[in-house]
Amino acid sequence: MSDGTPVRPESRSRRPPLIAPAAVEGPTKFGAARLSIVSNSVLIALKIAAGAITGSIAIITEAVHSSIDLIASVVAYLSLRKADEPADADHMYGHAKVENIAAAIEGMLILVGAGVILYESVHRLSAGGGGIDHIGVGIAVIGVSAVVNVIVSTYLYRQAAAHDSPALEGDAAHLRADAATSFAVLVGLVLIEVTGLEELDAIVALLVGSAIVYAGVRILSRSTRVLIDEALPAEELDVVRREIAEFPSGELVGYHKLRGRRAGSARHIDLHLQFAPGTSLERAHEVAHELQGAVRRELPGADLLIHMEPSRRRSRRTEDDGPGAGATEAG
Question: From residue 330, how far is each of 88, 220, 255, 256 by CA, in Å?
Fold first, then answer.
């Protein structure tokens, strides 16, 4: 419409949200983090016992890996609790970035675990290794560990997606890497049982440690990009552009200086909206609120800061005017 009549958001076409509503509500993510802590604690005990019984360096390094996973799970749980706290006088934008800090810590812990595994593997190879006994016990424990970690990590990945949680995603990546290494160790133990080549134990552990490095670097890279305020993905900013282009109001004629960043599962977006000559401040404010509501239906919980300014144009522009445009018009 171009007559200035308010358009109710309910009358506009609905799209499925780009971010799940659970990203900003629901306690399930805390239960997922607690489950990770419990499963890691049980698996550590099993692996230490199996490593002591068999003497396998691969199983012992698996226990070390699970211990690091446990630390990461505790960090994830505590970060979720802190990130869920509301904004206060000292943290006016909230505590959501604590999740990204936790994800960075988890990435570093993965790299520490990989370093321990690589060192122990090289040491065992250079020292010639020791005998491995009761391989059947090791095969059983590692097999159980792999299955448990696949189940728990799958659940964590689902909860991470539902809550858009970097901390849970990092925890899930930890457990999925642990599952992958468990399967590799399982294959190595079976080969040792079949071939009698005990050197395969350290070789498998060496390959496992190398693979874990990739997971750690990936998580660390993603979390640090958020911490230095990397721009939101194009598809999320496109939500704002599309809503502006489709907004049924003749007063809204353009926008510029659109930018956005992420903190945990929160999105912070700001932009300048340009209005046709003669548009009242009251009407511009109403349009801005309607636009905010439309964007938040697709990006639940997004925090939009909108600056309103006049324009000499009377027709709609559907592209960003650029960072410097509108300066003379706003003056």
Answer: 33, 41, 12, 12
What are 291-328's pLDDT values in tens digits?
888 888 888 878 888 998 888 776 656 555 554 444 33
Contacts of 89 (CB under 8 A, 6+ apart): none
Number of other CB atoms surrounding residue 188 within 10 Å:
24
CATH code of the domain occupying 21-227:
1.20.1510.10
- How sure is the predictor about 331, in pLDDT bands with cuts at 50, 70 and 90? very low
Domains of the chain, by residue range, sit at: 21-227, 232-330
Judging by beta carbons within 10 Å of its beta carbon (0-12, 13-18, 19+), is residue 30 exposed, middle or buried?
Answer: middle
Which class would CATH give 232-330?
A: alpha beta
pTM for the complete prediction? 0.62
Among 260, 28, 59, 258, CA closest to 163 = 28
